[in-house]
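Checklist before submission:
- one chain only
- standard amino acids only
- sequence pasted in full

Submission:
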Amino acid sequence: MKKTNFCLFLISIFSAPHLYAQLESASIEGTTQGTTYHITYLDNKHRNLQPEIEKLLLDFDFSVSTYNPFSIISRVNQNDKDVRVDKYFKKCFKKAKEVWKNSDGAFDPTVLPLTNAWGFGPGRKLTIQKNKIDSILQFVGFQLIKLKGNKIVKEDPRVELDFNAFAQGYSVDVVSNFLNKKGIKSYIVEIGGEVYAKGTNLNDKAWTVNLEQPKDNKESINNFIASAILKNCAISTSGNNRRFFIENGIKYAHHLDPKTGYPAKNNLLSASLFANNCITTDANATGVLVMGLDKAKIFLQKHPEIKALLIYSDESGNYNYYKANGVDKILIDFKE
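Returned file contents:
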């Protein structure tokens, strides 16, 4: 799965003191999908749900992790004729198809060969040359692969899938659904910086997360530009300030344009999206960052169910902000 620092732009989760005797606030953390997770939930039964959650995440990883050579998605990429896909894979495939269509191909899960070529995936980085990129583009395109029942059918055996752009967000939903089934009414789930929160904390206040300034910084935390109030809401942020490399004085970020084969070139620095589930925010945040500001504005006008804060740079390198679909209502302490 994609490797990210904890809370990519989404840094601190404000916790509350123990105020009510009938409820206990449990906080658990660990590692999954090449990153970390942090979960806090309120439970009047005082249960330790970590073993069940970790089993859930392990099963999820075994389905859609390209870093696991024995996962279902890895076997699909290896053209294993005996592999059958499971419910996690099907959900990812169908969501990817939806976002691919809605984003006019800016989001495309068949970019794995390009991701590897540029050194952002599990494969070995290539020396980038136009003829190599052009040859890879021949088998990049979600129209080249289909789901039929429990089987994947490819038009070209070289097509490979990569759900890493939104699998962590989907795993947040999986854990959230598990907590719902356990009768947990208040919780916050964070996996690799993707977050969903439901209910309230022990102060009976909504959960709050911080948004980080999109300044190039691979290791530490940048200054916060705002906080976001999450009321039964997911948030995902995609940006170009964590995963990048500089070669011959040129910055190359990990968001690849499936149409050109090269990292997307536009003035968008980060996209923070809010919706009622994390698979939607995570997948669309990637697509928005690739499509750029002008196309992103049109996309968000067509999707009022997604609130957004886009940060972009002007010609002088100054930060500018575009807010869509009522995002102001959930942002506090905004520092423009």
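Reviewer check: Residues 87-102 form the longest helix (16 residues).
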